Amino acid sequence: MITIKDLHKSYHMGTNSLHVLKGINFNVNEGELVSIMGSSGSGKSTLLNILGMLDEADTGSYVLDGVQIKNLNEKIAARYRNEFLGFIFQSFNLINYKSALDNVALPLYYQGISRKERLSKAEHYLEKVGLAEWSHHLPSELSGGQKQRVAIARALASDPKVLLADEPTGALDTKTSYEVMELIQGINDEGKTILVVTHEHDIAQMTKRIVNLKDGVIIDDSKVEQVRATQYV
Amino acid sequence: MFNKDRWSEILEALNANKIRTFLTAFGVFWGITILVLLLALTNGLKNGVTADFGDFATNSMFMWTQGTSKPYKGLPKNRYFNYKIDDVAAIKAEIPNIKYVSPRNQLGGFRGANNVIRGTKTGAFEIYGDYPEYIKQQPMDILSGRFLSYSDIEAKRKICVIGTGVVKGLYDVGEEIIGTYIKINGVNFKVVGTFKMSNSQGDGEQDASTIYIPFTTFGQAFNRGDRVGWMAITAVDGIPITSIKQQVFDLMKSRHKIHPEDDRAIGHFDLSEQFERVSGLFAILTIVGYFVGALVLMSGIIGISNIMLIVVKERTKEIGVRRALGASPWTIKGQILQESLILTILSGMVGISFAAFMIWIMNAVLDNVGPVENFANPSVGMQVVFTALFILVVSGLLAGMIPANSATKMKPVDALRIE
What we know:
Chain A is an alpha/beta fold. Chain A has helices at about 45-50, 75-85, 100-110, 115-130, 145-155, 175-190, 200-205; strands spanning about 1-15, 15-30, 35, 60-65, 65-70, 85-90, 160-165, 195, 210-215, 215-225. In chain A, the strands form two sheets. In chain A, strands 6-7-8-3-9-10 form a six-stranded mixed β-sheet, sandwiched between helices. Chain A has a four-stranded antiparallel β-sheet with strand order 2-1-4-5, with helices on one face. The mean pLDDT of chain A is about 90. Helices cover about 55% and strands about 15% of the residues of chain B. Chain B is of the alpha+beta class. In chain B, the strands form two sheets. In chain B, strands 1, 3, 4, 5, 6, 7, 8, 9, 10, 11, 13 and 14 form a twelve-stranded mixed β-sheet that branches. The longest helix of chain B has about 45 residues, at about 270-315. Chain B has two domains: about 5-55 and about 275-415, no CATH class; about 60-270, no CATH class. The chains are: A alpha/beta, B alpha+beta.
């Protein structure tokens, strides 16, 4: 599903140059649940941003579902993001003046789907994350865990090939974190490819494979015995 | 543009911060209000001043005779002459583009002696000998009976049409007027109609104390024969009388044996020229109104642009999220442009309505306190409203341009990083 070869990325700040990714090679197959770990500054977020086409690599190749991702203009990048990817953020990033339902429907809006169809799909995904009865509430009326569920429903709404989650449990307490992970595991069980960036070991253990990043290179990439979140909930 | 979802997106965004939306809109509202009010006031001034011209057909001139100033063909200078009724026919026949020629004679005048008697009542009035066309040059409302007709002219009937001032001076309230007789300089005339000037300003009293009798009757009764006191000449619409008056003068000079270069012999007053001058002044005032109004409006537009910039800045993260979810730069730009467009047009429409309301109040006040010198009926035409709308659309787009560009300038990854 994802093939990355010799990926380099550096940031320039004035005269300083910061080499963040120093040649990353890795593959993700369809249906995998991968966690990317590393301390802050290890380059894990940068990697995720490049995978999410929010940022571009300096050199190296990135192929997503057979499509070469290179030199995209913003218009095409926006379309690819919409079709291929679903984002889950640490701070949820829901639009605060839109109801949960409208938030979930937003990616479908950018696909040009009619309002009626959009809302019925969005309703379906809200139901999937267990928030059907909260569909007309504003994000400010939801708890952190609920917000993240709405965000997950939103990421799923356009039926993307890959879900990218950047510290999805970073702003949640342990119990809620496990609930969210349970949901993510469930989605993965249905066959969705998911990448999770995290620095929490217990969260990483709930994925199927851990990629360890340090100073811009992968120091460890191994499959793990998945811990089901259900047993903690 | 007419996508319902886009609209609800925008209304949602505008609704999200009501006070700011309102304050932003106020600048444009105020600008357009001032623009429209300025134009309305200019118009009111114009209406007031042009009303002083009365209702007389503006494309007209008056022509009379003065003494000659040059000897010609054996005739001495300082010779007095009169137009004759034949001259009228000659002008109509030989000069193209003339609409009306009214020969006129007058009796009595400003502070004249009493010249009209009815029973025991007397009065001093202006008596004019006129042709039926005159009512087309000087519009008046016939209150009862009729105006002069060609059969009156041909039969030299001793009939008259009298103004409201004459009625007031010679009749008791409620008395039957049509069919009665009044005595003008010793000659009896039957009253066949009463009139009131359609739109009189200033000279109302004088206009009302006027009596019209047939031109031919005038000549016979008051010993003028076929002489003409002066003429009121109107050109056809679209051709200014100023451009053809010289032909009329030349014709008169040749018919009355006047030296072709004797400019003193024929006196005239060119109403059209005066009117053009005043119209030109108001054209300039209107431009000034647009200019000043547009400048005030511009500060409102800058306000919108400014606030939109702040909105864009505040929503940087939201825009980043939207782009991560698949919004193309043009979708974002379009939305911001449309937001500023809607804000401008909406507040502009409210401004126009408010200005219309103010104009309505002004008119109501004017109606109550009576006519004010040099000011009447402030108003704007539909074309001003459309021009204002056009200005609003253009300025709304301009206002949105800079913020829309700045919204998509930042990379989505940087936009998302902002807390």
